[in-house]
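Technical annex, item 7. During the second reporting period the consortium partners agreed on a shared format for inverse folding records so that results from different sites could be compared directly. Each record opens with the tokenized structure and is followed by the designed sequence. A conforming record, contributed by the partner at site C, is shown below for reference.
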């Protein structure tokens, strides 16, 4: 019996390639990319004070672009290539068609698809770090920070945990889609960088209202729905595991959001949309390392925990611990990503189902992946505690790595350019930093002049004439 013509292998569709898996992987990668641009660009730009809207959105926009170029230049091979040392791969380009059209190291699709998929994960990590630095970091310092941190921190964590040759991967750490590699790294690195950069202006720190909460929810919605690709694509196949991962993701997230909402309502008397958004994020982050290897009922329990523990650290503990009060983290990246990511990694070590781990990893020694709950149930208690120990070791490794490397990078950048904006720039915001303003409202017409940046012609693009009627502006 002959195959239909569209399923016959040819030079562009070799026998090893599964077209369905390749299509899903590209779709999942695009969904993850949309989480950053426009998702987090919109979220950051609308969640900050009006005068910082452009700078905040632009930090995310720039980071995404820079990481993509670094990724194909040297990052992919350092994260997933031939081993240089036990925690890092050999730097090399991922640009040649012979390499890109070959079979990826995992999955039934070409390396080009894998390079793109992993690139958007690397990019969103830097975008998340930006959330801890909004409203005061020198943009020139950020330009340097992104490639340096990506090269000397992200690649080490990715190789160690995700690459089959990495030392933690060989030990048997479970990080389904990046609870450690992405979220714990971003949370710790962002908090550390915020310490070195210093706080926002005193006035901004005490009065930093969102400029558009409805638009913020649009960005949050893109982030939530994009997580279907984030966790659903981590199995590298359009399989039953990817379906389970997507379902667990949304169940945990919804549970976490509702838990945070209930706590806000009970303790503060009013439900908060900002709190609900934080609960959404902690749920997404917490389920990430476990999405495809836990039962759906476990995802509900993880949602309850992720909606309550980070709530406590943010709303209660933050006001009592001097270090937390000292470091200015405007988007609460430490609580939503470091705390929730570490929590998710530990809970993964407790709830991971042996059968689901076998279906995901598809390796001969799959039995080493065993959640403590199932170890206690099946008489393999020592194996379950060993898995918990590996999860804790990976968490400590990522924390130490990011504190050390981020501190060194910030110190080095500080030798070249100031990490923090000047006091004058802090008072003015976007107009001083970029020569642009986000909101050209009619009653502010006299303060808005067309930017000369990126103009094709020397003539003014627009001239604004204020009408005599109040608040009216004519454009001629």
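Designed sequence (site C submission):
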């Amino acid at each position: 019996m002959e195959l239909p013509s569209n399923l016959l292998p040819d030079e562009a569709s070799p026998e090893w390639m599964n077209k369905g898996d390749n299509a899903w992987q590209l779709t999942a990668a695009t969904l993850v990319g949309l989480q950053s641009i426009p998702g987090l660009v919109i979220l950051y730009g609308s969640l900050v004070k009006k005068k910082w809207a452009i700078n905040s959105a632009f930090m995310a926009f720039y980071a995404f672009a820079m990481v993509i170029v670094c990724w194909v230049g040297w990052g992919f091979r350092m994260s997933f290539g031939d081993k240089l040392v036990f925690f890092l791969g050999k730097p090399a380009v991922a640009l040649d068609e012979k390499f890109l059209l070959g079979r990826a190291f995992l999955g039934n699709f070409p390396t080009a698809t894998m390079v793109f998929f992993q690139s958007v994960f690397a990019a969103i990590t830097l975008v998340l770090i930006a959330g801890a630095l909004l409203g005061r970091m020198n943009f020139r310092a950020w330009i340097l920070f992104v490639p340096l941190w990506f090269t000397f921190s992200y690649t080490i964590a990715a190789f160690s945990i995700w690459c089959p040759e990495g030392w933690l991967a060989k030990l048997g750490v479970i990080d389904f889609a990046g609870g450690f590699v992405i979220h714990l790294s971003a949370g710790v690195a962002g908090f550390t960088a915020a310490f070195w950069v210093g706080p926002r202006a005193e006035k901004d720190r005490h009065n930093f209202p969102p400029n558009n909460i409805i638009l913020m929810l649009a960005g949050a919605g893109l982030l939530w729905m994009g997580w279907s690709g984030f966790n659903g694509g981590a199995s590298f196949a359009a399989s039953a595991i990817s379906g389970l991962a997507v379902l667990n993701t949304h169940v945990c997230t919804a549970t976490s959001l509702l838990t945070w909402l209930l706590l806000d309502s009970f303790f503060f008397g009013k439900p908060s949309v900002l709190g609900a958004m934080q609960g959404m994020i902690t749920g997404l982050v917490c389920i990430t390392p476990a999405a495809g290897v836990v039962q759906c009922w476990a995802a509900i329990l993880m949602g309850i925990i992720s909606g309550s523990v980070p709530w406590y650290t943010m709303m209660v503990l933050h006001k009592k611990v001097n270090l937390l009060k000292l470091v200015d983290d405007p988007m609460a990246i430490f609580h939503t990503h470091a705390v929730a990511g570490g929590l998710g990694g530990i809970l993964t070590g407790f709830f991971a189902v042996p059968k689901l781990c076998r279906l995901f990893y598809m390796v001969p020694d799959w039995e080493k992946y065993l959640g403590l709950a199932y170890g206690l149930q099946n008489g393999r208690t020592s194996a379950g505690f060993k898995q918990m120990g590996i999860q804790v070791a990976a968490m400590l490794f990522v924390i130490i790595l990011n504190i050390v490397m981020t501190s060194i990078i910030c110190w080095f950048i500080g030798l070249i350019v100031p990490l923090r904006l000047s006091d004058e720039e802090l008072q003015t915001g976007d107009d001083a930093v970029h020569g642009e303003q986000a909101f050209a409202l009619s009653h502010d017409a006299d303060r808005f002049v067309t930017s000369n940046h990126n103009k094709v012609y020397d003539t003014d693009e627009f001239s604004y004439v204020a009408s005599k009627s109040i608040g009216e502006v004519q454009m001629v």
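The beta strands are 83-85, 88-89, 464-466, 473-475. The mean pLDDT is 90. All partners now use this format for quarterly exchanges.
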